[in-house]
Amino acid sequence: MTVAAFMNLALYHPIHGYYARAVRRSGRAGDFFTSVDVGALFGELLESQIAEMAFLLRRSPSDPFDLVEAGAGNGRLAADIMSVAARRDPAVHARTRLHLVEASPPARAAQSTVLGPDADRLASSGADLPAAFEGVLLANELLDALPVHQVVMRDEGLREMFVAVSDDRLATIEGPLSTVALQQYFDDLEITLEAGWRVEVNLLARDWIAEAVRRLQRGFIILIDYGHPARELYSVTHSSGTLTSFSRHVMGGPEGGSATPLWLEQPGERDITAHVDFTTVQRAAEKAGAVTLGFLDQTYFLMGLIDGVDLGAGLTPAAQMKQRLALKTLLLPGGLGSTFKVLVLGKDVGHPALKGCSHRARVT
Question: Could you give the CA distance from residue 311 to residue 324 in angstroms, rounded to a whole number?
Fold first, then answer.
């Protein structure tokens, strides 16, 4: 089977899949750490941007506003955002129809409880995006978890890696491309891999963003993930690939030439992820009708949102210290701040000067 098919089973099988079997996978007690795990501050800052977008989209004071989160898990981030909106932007809160998109049934089942007093704002919860919506689509660390193909360049041309059983163990083997779309992917980017380079191709990310833009009638999309522009991702720097697994915060892979890379171990028990090609995602979104409003490090995106937000209001000195540490974690270059990139898209909204994009296109 292709690596993409293996990832799909390992992560999303309805019974044995990694994400299907648990309510929560991140945090100190989980397998990996995200910006949401830093605390409620991440949601508080995002709410500032979402509220600005909601104001820009408003036609009347009671105009409904759809907030869609893809890869919402148990609703922790949505709960943080809605809690702040109720206090800081009650008019936006009153207009909001919340749609949480999540593949894991246990996580979906927990959403109403996690949302607490904002459970009545939940308009839909399911595995797929709403058929049509107008508002903001937020996806935090979604695209990196979509199944990817893995290819390797040989002297005779591009080959694909497949997962097979060898000596009663899973291993990778080379074979001809499973789809011509893989070669076309690099042709479209005008990138030629060097012999020996082994890289990943996320066809689903390209298709997902195109479909998301089509379903968005009018509004904004905020994508937050780790990755690079194509010229950097498909370069000597990442010539062994970025396919990686996590378990208890320990990384396994990429393995280069090993027949049994660590991401093949314990399928269903480990997270598997690969860096995002933001160039292809951006191009697919624009082809579907979106415009790019900003592409920048999380550091600069969040710095643009801090202005005008009284982060320490009503907090004890101890709580203020905790909040400052959380902010440092979110912004610190070399950590979450520069590892994560933010791509902001708009559809039928013009080119507004958004707070989160006030530092323009700064990517390190």
Answer: 9
Q: DSSP letter at 32?
A: B
Strand locations in 203-262 (E): 216-228, 244-247, 250-252
Segment holding 171, helix H or strand E: strand 169-175
Spatial contact of 222 and 141, defined as CB atoms under 8 Å apart: no
The residues of the chain scoring below 50 in pLDDT are 26-30, 248-250, 255-258
**What gap in Å lies between CA 234 and CA 198, rounded to an integer?**
9
Q: What is the pLDDT of residue 240?
A: 94
Which pair of tokens denotes residue 187?
Answer: 């042709």
Q: pLDDT value at position 22? A: 62
CB 209 within 8 A of CB 129: no
Residues forming a β-bridge with 48: none
CB 357 within 8 A of CB 293: yes
pLDDT at position 253 is 53
Sign of CA dihedral 25, 101, 243, 46: negative
Q: Which amino acid, residue 359?
A: H
Quote the pLDDT of residue 252.
56
269 close to 9: Cβ distance less than 8 angstroms: no
Q: How far apart are CA 115 and CA 117, in angstroms?
A: 6
Note the pLDDT of residue 324: 78
Task: Find the largest Cα–Cα distance for the chain.
Answer: 66
Between the alpha carbon of residue 165 and those of residues 162, 200, 256, the distances in Å are: 10, 21, 19
Q: Residue 207: CA atoms inside 13 Å, Cβ hemisphere, count?
A: 8
Cβ contact 285:222 at 8 Å: no
For the record, the structure tokens of 317 come out as 């000195």
Give the type of residue at 282: Q
**Residue whose C-alpha is closest to residue 66's, from 92, 41, 40, 91:** 92
Please, what are the domains in the chain?
Answer: 23-144+203-228+275-357 (3.40.50.12710)
- At 115, is the secondary structure helix, strand, or coil? helix
DSSP-assigned letters across all residues of 95-108:
HEEEEEE-S-HHHH
Distance between CA 334 and CA 120 in Å, rounded?
39
